[in-house]
Amino acid sequence: MTPLIIKTTQRDHEVARLAAFAIVLHLAEAVMPTPLPGVKPGIANVITLYVLHRYDFVTAAWVSLLRVFAVSLLFGNFLTPTFVLSLSGAIASLLALSLAMHLPKRWFGPVSHSIFAAFAHIAGQLIIVRLWLIPSAGLAYLVPVFATFALLFGTLNGLIAAKLLAAESTGETQ
Amino acid sequence: MRNWGSWARLLPGDWLVILAGIVVVAFAYATLWSSSPAGKVRIHSGDRIFATFSLNQDRIVEVPGPIGISRITIHHHQARFESSPCSNQYCVHQGWLSKAGQVAVCLPNRVSVELLGDKGYDSLNY
């Protein structure tokens, strides 16, 4: 019997390294208390934005989805509603990013992408909640609250990603 | 480690997106948190309107559905599902509805209760 050897490419290592950053950020955020249950800054999305700008969409999708799966395994909520919500938010965000990334780069930066992704994230999650977990129209009362935080944290994460990208590019040229 | 003081500049489109986001959020608050008091309650059964009642008169309405009878109580300008033959009882646990636009739905029995505002127009003609 021959041992199974998985050949990894340089790109696999790169994706794993970036996903590891995102996982650490996600875990760090998870231990912080939140003012409202269900409201989180989603700081790990900074990594997704960063990868989208430095690499490409496919790499960003890998990093984002790997993080969702890895974090759910670490917390032991794989295939639970928490995981499904996390995954639906991530997929919705990625769909929004796949569209928003085609906006003219001269006018729209990471902050725009981040805000679109944040709104898509909460929309994707709310659709799942409405269809599956809490089929009640009363959920509509929470929409403005979630939208407020989506805008706030979407802008903040976008600013951090923009700062990161700008700092890195100036560092490289000097 | 230079220019950490100057934040990455926002592009014109970014400002536009932020502005649009603020408008969306404000619109969400305006439409979804409108707390105008309700005047009437409309009960749907299946795809038809079962009945519309004023909230001023207390009453108990029995609405037949595919799996049984849902009892809807109107009391003190509020309405609620008092009982429903569904298994999950989401509709009953939603409790009293008192504001215009609030809805309680019993999906298994296909019954919904919707509160309507007093000043709503049925139709407008020009």
From TrEMBL, chain A:
GO terms for molecular function: heptaprenyl diphosphate synthase activity. InterPro entries: Hpre_diP_synt_I, Hpre_diP_synth_I. The keyword tRNA-binding does not apply. Pfam families: Hpre_diP_synt_I. It is an enzyme of class 2 (transferase). Keywords: Membrane, Transferase, Transmembrane, Transmembrane helix. The chain crosses the membrane at residues 57-76, 82-103, 115-133, 139-160. Its EC number is 2.5.1.30. This is Heptaprenyl diphosphate synthase. It comes from Novimethylophilus kurashikiensis.
From TrEMBL, chain B:
This is Bifunctional protein FolD. Keywords: Membrane, Transmembrane, Transmembrane helix. It holds the Pfam family NusG_II. The chain crosses the membrane at residues 15-33. It comes from Novimethylophilus kurashikiensis. It comes from the Bacteria. CDD domains: NGN-insert_like. The keyword Transmembrane applies.
